[in-house]
Amino acid sequence: MNNKELEKIAKSVRKTLFEIKTRDGIGHLHSSLSCVDILVSLFYDDRTNFNHEKDIVLFGKAHGSPSIYPILADLEYFPKEELDKYCRPGGILRLHSDASIPGCHFVGGSLGNGIGYASGLALANRDKNYYIIMGDSELYEGSVWESLIFISHHNLTNLKIIVDRNGLGTIGETEKMLKLEPLEDKFKSFVGDVKTINGHDFDALRDIFSNDIPQAIIADTIKGKGVSYMEGKWKYHVVIPSSEEDIKTGLEELS
User: Quick one: DSSP state of residue 210?
Assistant: First the structure.
Protein backbone atom coordinates (compact mmCIF):
# COMPACT_ATOMS: atom_id res chain seq x y z
CA MET A 1 0.00 0.00 0.00
CA ASN A 2 1.48 3.36 -1.00
CA ASN A 3 1.60 6.54 1.06
CA LYS A 4 -1.32 8.22 -0.69
CA GLU A 5 -3.53 5.25 0.11
CA LEU A 6 -2.39 5.25 3.73
CA GLU A 7 -3.00 9.01 3.99
CA LYS A 8 -6.52 8.53 2.62
CA ILE A 9 -7.25 5.86 5.22
CA ALA A 10 -5.83 8.02 8.01
CA LYS A 11 -8.02 10.96 6.99
CA SER A 12 -11.07 8.68 6.94
CA VAL A 13 -10.24 7.37 10.43
CA ARG A 14 -9.88 10.91 11.74
CA LYS A 15 -13.15 11.97 10.15
CA THR A 16 -14.96 9.07 11.77
CA LEU A 17 -13.45 9.92 15.15
CA PHE A 18 -14.47 13.55 14.70
CA GLU A 19 -18.03 12.54 13.80
CA ILE A 20 -18.62 10.12 16.66
CA LYS A 21 -17.06 12.33 19.31
CA THR A 22 -18.66 15.63 18.28
CA ARG A 23 -22.06 13.97 17.98
CA ASP A 24 -22.47 13.63 21.75
CA GLY A 25 -19.45 15.61 22.95
CA ILE A 26 -17.97 12.61 24.76
CA GLY A 27 -14.35 11.60 25.16
CA HIS A 28 -10.94 12.97 24.23
CA LEU A 29 -10.89 13.73 20.52
CA HIS A 30 -7.66 15.74 20.65
CA SER A 31 -5.62 12.81 22.01
CA SER A 32 -7.17 10.30 19.63
CA LEU A 33 -6.20 12.24 16.50
CA SER A 34 -2.45 12.37 17.17
CA CYS A 35 -1.74 8.61 17.06
CA VAL A 36 -3.89 7.70 14.04
CA ASP A 37 -1.01 7.54 11.53
CA ILE A 38 0.92 5.18 13.79
CA LEU A 39 -2.03 2.79 13.92
CA VAL A 40 -2.73 3.07 10.19
CA SER A 41 0.91 2.23 9.44
CA LEU A 42 0.77 -0.84 11.68
CA PHE A 43 -2.59 -2.19 10.55
CA TYR A 44 -2.63 -1.35 6.84
CA ASP A 45 0.90 -1.16 5.47
CA ASP A 46 1.69 -4.71 4.35
CA ARG A 47 5.41 -3.91 4.39
CA THR A 48 5.52 -3.67 8.18
CA ASN A 49 6.23 -6.62 10.46
CA PHE A 50 3.01 -6.09 12.38
CA ASN A 51 0.31 -8.77 12.08
CA HIS A 52 -3.03 -7.66 13.48
CA GLU A 53 -4.24 -11.25 13.69
CA LYS A 54 -1.37 -12.25 16.00
CA ASP A 55 0.19 -9.15 17.55
CA ILE A 56 -1.40 -7.18 20.37
CA VAL A 57 -1.80 -3.39 20.61
CA LEU A 58 -2.42 -1.92 24.05
CA PHE A 59 -2.99 1.68 25.10
CA GLY A 60 -1.31 3.31 28.06
CA LYS A 61 -3.04 6.55 27.00
CA ALA A 62 -6.49 4.97 27.29
CA HIS A 63 -8.21 8.29 26.56
CA GLY A 64 -6.77 7.99 23.03
CA SER A 65 -7.73 4.34 22.57
CA PRO A 66 -10.92 5.07 20.54
CA SER A 67 -8.55 5.92 17.66
CA ILE A 68 -8.45 2.18 16.98
CA TYR A 69 -12.24 1.75 16.74
CA PRO A 70 -12.69 2.83 13.08
CA ILE A 71 -9.75 0.61 12.11
CA LEU A 72 -11.13 -2.46 13.87
CA ALA A 73 -14.55 -1.84 12.31
CA ASP A 74 -12.98 -1.59 8.85
CA LEU A 75 -11.14 -4.86 9.43
CA GLU A 76 -14.45 -6.49 10.44
CA TYR A 77 -13.69 -7.13 14.10
CA PHE A 78 -17.22 -5.81 14.71
CA PRO A 79 -19.98 -4.27 12.54
CA LYS A 80 -19.39 -0.69 11.40
CA GLU A 81 -22.83 0.16 12.77
CA GLU A 82 -21.29 -0.01 16.26
CA LEU A 83 -19.44 3.23 15.53
CA ASP A 84 -22.80 5.02 15.50
CA LYS A 85 -23.47 3.68 19.00
CA TYR A 86 -20.20 4.89 20.53
CA CYS A 87 -20.76 5.46 24.26
CA ARG A 88 -24.49 4.86 23.85
CA PRO A 89 -26.74 2.25 25.52
CA GLY A 90 -26.68 -1.01 23.61
CA GLY A 91 -23.36 -0.28 21.92
CA ILE A 92 -20.14 -2.18 22.55
CA LEU A 93 -17.74 0.77 22.12
CA ARG A 94 -16.89 2.54 25.35
CA LEU A 95 -15.09 5.73 26.34
CA HIS A 96 -11.91 3.65 26.77
CA SER A 97 -11.25 0.38 24.97
CA ASP A 98 -11.50 -2.80 27.03
CA ALA A 99 -11.26 -6.56 26.53
CA SER A 100 -15.00 -6.92 25.89
CA ILE A 101 -14.50 -5.17 22.53
CA PRO A 102 -13.22 -7.46 19.75
CA GLY A 103 -9.63 -6.53 18.91
CA CYS A 104 -9.08 -4.71 22.22
CA HIS A 105 -7.29 -6.19 25.20
CA PHE A 106 -7.01 -3.79 28.12
CA VAL A 107 -8.97 -1.10 29.89
CA GLY A 108 -6.99 1.87 31.12
CA GLY A 109 -7.80 5.07 32.90
CA SER A 110 -5.08 5.65 35.44
CA LEU A 111 -2.06 6.65 33.40
CA GLY A 112 1.06 4.55 33.92
CA ASN A 113 -0.78 1.26 34.42
CA GLY A 114 -0.75 0.09 30.80
CA ILE A 115 2.98 -0.48 30.47
CA GLY A 116 3.04 -2.58 33.63
CA TYR A 117 0.20 -4.73 32.35
CA ALA A 118 1.91 -5.03 28.95
CA SER A 119 5.24 -6.03 30.49
CA GLY A 120 3.53 -8.81 32.46
CA LEU A 121 1.93 -10.14 29.29
CA ALA A 122 5.24 -9.94 27.43
CA LEU A 123 7.01 -11.90 30.18
CA ALA A 124 4.32 -14.59 30.26
CA ASN A 125 4.12 -14.90 26.46
CA ARG A 126 7.58 -14.39 25.01
CA ASP A 127 6.53 -15.85 21.66
CA LYS A 128 3.97 -13.08 21.16
CA ASN A 129 4.60 -9.45 20.16
CA TYR A 130 3.07 -6.58 22.13
CA TYR A 131 2.88 -2.89 21.27
CA ILE A 132 2.05 -0.31 23.95
CA ILE A 133 1.06 3.20 22.85
CA MET A 134 1.80 5.73 25.56
CA GLY A 135 1.21 9.44 25.96
CA ASP A 136 4.17 11.68 26.71
CA SER A 137 2.48 13.26 29.75
CA GLU A 138 1.92 9.71 30.94
CA LEU A 139 5.66 9.55 31.48
CA TYR A 140 5.19 11.71 34.58
CA GLU A 141 3.97 8.57 36.34
CA GLY A 142 6.60 6.78 38.43
CA SER A 143 5.09 3.39 37.57
CA VAL A 144 6.28 3.87 33.98
CA TRP A 145 9.92 3.95 35.03
CA GLU A 146 9.45 1.06 37.45
CA SER A 147 8.09 -0.95 34.53
CA LEU A 148 11.05 0.03 32.37
CA ILE A 149 13.38 -1.40 35.02
CA PHE A 150 11.34 -4.63 34.88
CA ILE A 151 11.37 -4.68 31.06
CA SER A 152 15.13 -4.16 30.98
CA HIS A 153 15.83 -6.78 33.66
CA HIS A 154 13.79 -9.46 31.86
CA ASN A 155 14.96 -8.36 28.39
CA LEU A 156 11.40 -8.16 27.09
CA THR A 157 12.27 -7.45 23.47
CA ASN A 158 8.83 -8.71 22.39
CA LEU A 159 7.31 -5.56 23.92
CA LYS A 160 7.58 -2.43 21.78
CA ILE A 161 6.98 0.93 23.44
CA ILE A 162 5.58 3.72 21.25
CA VAL A 163 5.47 7.17 22.81
CA ASP A 164 2.95 9.52 21.20
CA ARG A 165 5.16 12.58 21.66
CA ASN A 166 2.72 15.40 20.91
CA GLY A 167 4.26 17.67 23.52
CA LEU A 168 1.02 18.53 25.27
CA GLY A 169 -0.70 17.50 28.46
CA THR A 170 -4.05 18.36 29.98
CA ILE A 171 -3.07 21.88 30.98
CA GLY A 172 -0.18 22.86 28.75
CA GLU A 173 3.11 21.99 27.10
CA THR A 174 5.08 19.13 28.63
CA GLU A 175 8.35 21.07 28.56
CA LYS A 176 6.76 23.89 30.55
CA MET A 177 4.81 21.72 32.98
CA LEU A 178 7.59 19.28 33.83
CA LYS A 179 10.46 18.90 31.39
CA LEU A 180 10.86 15.47 29.77
CA GLU A 181 13.82 16.12 27.48
CA PRO A 182 16.27 14.64 26.71
CA LEU A 183 13.66 11.89 26.40
CA GLU A 184 15.56 9.62 24.03
CA ASP A 185 18.54 9.56 26.39
CA LYS A 186 16.28 8.66 29.30
CA PHE A 187 14.81 5.69 27.44
CA LYS A 188 18.25 4.59 26.25
CA SER A 189 19.43 4.39 29.84
CA PHE A 190 16.73 1.76 30.47
CA VAL A 191 16.24 -0.21 27.25
CA GLY A 192 19.10 0.90 24.99
CA ASP A 193 17.44 0.51 21.61
CA VAL A 194 15.50 3.74 20.99
CA LYS A 195 14.60 5.74 17.86
CA THR A 196 12.87 9.10 17.40
CA ILE A 197 10.76 9.53 14.26
CA ASN A 198 8.11 11.73 12.69
CA GLY A 199 4.90 10.00 13.75
CA HIS A 200 2.99 11.35 10.73
CA ASP A 201 5.51 10.33 8.05
CA PHE A 202 4.51 7.00 6.50
CA ASP A 203 7.98 6.46 5.04
CA ALA A 204 9.53 6.88 8.49
CA LEU A 205 6.87 4.68 10.10
CA ARG A 206 7.33 1.99 7.46
CA ASP A 207 11.08 2.02 7.93
CA ILE A 208 10.80 1.66 11.70
CA PHE A 209 8.11 -1.06 11.62
CA SER A 210 9.50 -3.14 8.75
CA ASN A 211 12.99 -3.84 10.08
CA ASP A 212 14.26 -4.79 13.52
CA ILE A 213 11.77 -2.72 15.50
CA PRO A 214 13.44 -0.76 18.32
CA GLN A 215 12.45 -1.48 21.90
CA ALA A 216 11.18 2.10 22.23
CA ILE A 217 9.97 4.52 19.56
CA ILE A 218 9.45 8.21 20.28
CA ALA A 219 6.99 9.37 17.62
CA ASP A 220 6.83 13.14 17.27
CA THR A 221 3.19 13.97 16.57
CA ILE A 222 0.72 16.86 16.54
CA LYS A 223 -2.13 16.74 19.01
CA GLY A 224 -5.40 17.34 17.17
CA LYS A 225 -3.79 16.37 13.86
CA GLY A 226 -6.00 17.06 10.84
CA VAL A 227 -8.19 19.80 12.31
CA SER A 228 -6.34 23.10 11.90
CA TYR A 229 -7.85 25.02 14.81
CA MET A 230 -7.21 22.11 17.19
CA GLU A 231 -3.64 21.31 16.19
CA GLY A 232 -1.16 21.99 18.98
CA LYS A 233 -3.73 23.76 21.19
CA TRP A 234 -3.66 22.22 24.67
CA LYS A 235 -7.15 23.41 25.66
CA TYR A 236 -8.74 20.90 23.29
CA HIS A 237 -7.54 18.01 25.45
CA VAL A 238 -10.86 18.22 27.28
CA VAL A 239 -12.81 20.41 24.86
CA ILE A 240 -14.68 18.82 21.95
CA PRO A 241 -15.82 21.17 19.19
CA SER A 242 -19.53 21.88 19.56
CA SER A 243 -20.40 24.95 17.52
CA GLU A 244 -21.92 24.46 14.08
CA GLU A 245 -19.07 26.40 12.49
CA ASP A 246 -16.32 24.40 14.21
CA ILE A 247 -17.93 21.07 13.35
CA LYS A 248 -18.43 22.12 9.73
CA THR A 249 -14.80 23.26 9.44
CA GLY A 250 -13.50 20.05 11.00
CA LEU A 251 -15.53 17.83 8.68
CA GLU A 252 -14.47 19.83 5.63
CA GLU A 253 -10.78 19.57 6.55
CA LEU A 254 -11.07 15.83 7.12
CA SER A 255 -13.04 15.12 3.93
Answer: H
